[in-house]
Amino acid sequence: MRSETIEVQGHIIDSLILPRVLDEILSHEGTFEILDVDIGQRRQDPSRARIRVMAPDDEHLESILTAVRTHGAEVPGEGDVQLAPAPCDGVFPEGFYVTTNYPARIRCQGRWIEVEHPRMDCGLRVDPEAGRAETAKFGQVRAGDCFVIGGRGVHVMPPARGRERNVFEFMSSDVSSEKPKRAIIREIAGQMRQARAEGKKILLVGGPAIVHTGAVPAVVALIEAGYVDRLFAGNALAVHDIEYALLGTSLGVSLENALASEEGHEHHIRAINAIRRAGGIRQAVESGLLRSGIMHACIRHGVEMVLAGSIRDDGPLPEVITDTLAAQKRMLALTDNTGVALMVATALHSIATGNLLPVTTRIVCVDINQAVITKLADRGSFQTVGLVTDVGLFFEELLTHLREPQ
């Protein structure tokens, strides 16, 4: 029987960290003995527990320690991280540490270093001379870069539950369609105001249903009011927004009377051709060809955009990045300092963006399909608040609350 003593501290009771650690031990075929526990007497007081972990062999013990570290457990006095060089571009060294989206720090050369850009599913690149540690995806790995291997010397810091309960926090626990949506959207509006007041960015990740459901005027109003700083989308959102601006339809259906237009199936292709002839979206705006819509508002108000392509795209529009790694690199550069991310009616872009954001970013996922919200949360972005509703109605309600006097 092998054993090791671990410690967990912080808000380990009300944030359910302690029961999660104990559950990890049991699920990895280990047993435990709680040596001592000191529970805070008031809500703001931290708690601390010291636990002896027992496993049948070294392999099981190491798997337990790896699992409990993701919940913030530490092995006292375990020393510095172990480092190994990347063997070549795009390849991590064997046994590399895989990150979570929690804030973290590492112990290197006897001192603690905060990890920059906490993101899930990355390696931890370390520059011992500069005293820096950062997450890196496969495409960012260069031969000879030093990466953390194993979990020794890594301290993950799971976020504690807030001292004050609110609707936003409470409703992140499920994705039922039977929610008090008005109260939740009011709270989302409050979070967006707070993010703007703190100088943080608001990111909109959107799908073409934003256009199909008639939400373009509301989204444009949000942009004009300064509540959208960045936009991540695909070719489709931009194409159908431009189709609506130029021809009054989306997928050939009039958004005024919901009737299909004659030869409407050609409209999105003609819209793409018009923009390609102009040289791009910006050129179409500057020439006066494109005079309304989300793309027009983004250009006019300096919203930074990433349009990432897919194999099924028509065209695509000139601004669409068809190299997946190039699009991911651009998205990585634009996720820093994001306070609130609105992910609306797009499964793949929402999940892709969720993988790039730290747990401290508020994520709001809105979709008519409950499975999209569940999948995003299951991928690790559990801080997501999900709303199962029509996205057009969501934006109208959100705009109403943002316009309320404070």
Textual characterization of the structure:
It is built from 14 helices and 18 strands. Helix 4 (181-197) packs across helix 14, helix 6 runs parallel beside helix 14 and helix 7 (235-247) packs across helix 8 (267-278). The chain has 406 residues and is α/β, with parallel strands linked by helices. The chain has 3 domains: 1-76, LOR/SDH bifunctional enzyme, conserved domain (Alpha-Beta Plaits); 77-160, Beta Barrel (conserved putative lor/sdh protein from methanococcus maripaludis s2 fold); 167-402, Rossmann fold (3-Layer(aba) Sandwich). The longest helix has 17 residues, at 181-197. A 7-stranded mixed β-sheet has the order 4-9-7-8-6-5-10, with no helix packed on it. A 6-stranded parallel β-sheet has the order 15-12-11-16-17-18, with helices on both faces. Strands 1-3-2 form a 3-stranded antiparallel β-sheet.
Task: Output the structural class.
Answer: alpha/beta
The outline comes out as: elongated
> In order across it, which strands form the biggest sheet?
4-9-7-8-6-5-10
Which CATH architecture of the largest domain would you pick?
3-Layer(aba) Sandwich
First-residue to last-residue Cα separation: 62 Å
Q: How many alpha or pi helices?
A: 14
CATH homolog superfamily of the largest domain: putative lor/sdh protein like domains
Taking pLDDT < 50 over at least 5 consecutive residues as the criterion, the unreliable ranges are none
Strand runs, count: 18
